[in-house]
């Protein structure tokens, strides 16, 4: 019959599954990048630019711990996202958003790297939403 809607549940396509797998892989990779950023700040605080008149006066040592904690959470969420659950996707969306915000605030200290991380976080969020995991 033409013109009628099917009431049978649809199986997610390979594009949707690939989107979630890509997002999970990128979350783990973003966690590694954040971890490197945090370790670099812990090992050598002089590596990052000192911004004396910045509105958010946070020391580089504090940024190191923020990046390390976000890194750990991103990697855990990335591995959980491989399971394909909606809860993991929601947590991954929130963490990718938090990582983007953290790197936006870190932007004056190391602009190029922060912009790369922000772009990857946005791409991960787009990939999760586009996959349709919240609609299933």
Can you tell me about this structure?
- This protein has 136 residues and is mainly alpha-helical.
- It has one domain.
- The protein has helices at 14-43, 60-81, 86-105, 111-131.
SS elements, strand count: 0
Mean pLDDT comes to 84
Q: What can be said about the biggest beta sheet?
A: none
Overall shape: it is: elongated
Low-confidence stretches: none
Radius of gyration: 18 Å
Number of helices, where a helix is a run of at least 4 consecutive DSSP H or I residues: 4
Class of secondary structure makeup: mainly alpha
Provide a brief overview of the structure.
The protein is elongated.
Descriptive labels:
136 residues; mainly alpha; transmembrane; DUF7144 domain-containing protein; membrane
Helix-strand layout with pairing:
Elements: H1 14-43, H2 60-81, H3 86-105, H4 111-131
Helix pairs in contact: 1-2, 1-3, 1-4, 2-3, 3-4
């Amino acid at each position: 019959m033409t013109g009628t809607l099917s009431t049978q549940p649809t199986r997610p396509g390979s594009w949707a599954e690939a989107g979630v797998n890509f997002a999970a892989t990128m979350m783990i990779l973003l966690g590694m990048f954040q971890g490197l950023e945090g370790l670099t700040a812990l090992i050598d605080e002089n590596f990052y630019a000192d911004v004396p008149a910045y509105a958010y006066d946070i020391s580089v040592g504090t940024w190191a711990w923020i990046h390390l904690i976000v890194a750990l959470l991103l990697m855990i969420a990335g591995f959980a996202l491989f399971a394909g659950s909606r809860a993991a996707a929601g947590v991954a969306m929130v963490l990718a958003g938090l990582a983007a915000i953290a790197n936006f605030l870190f932007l004056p200290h190391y602009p190029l790297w922060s912009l790369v991380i922000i772009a990857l976080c946005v791409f991960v969020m787009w990939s999760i939403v586009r996959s349709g995991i919240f609609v299933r």
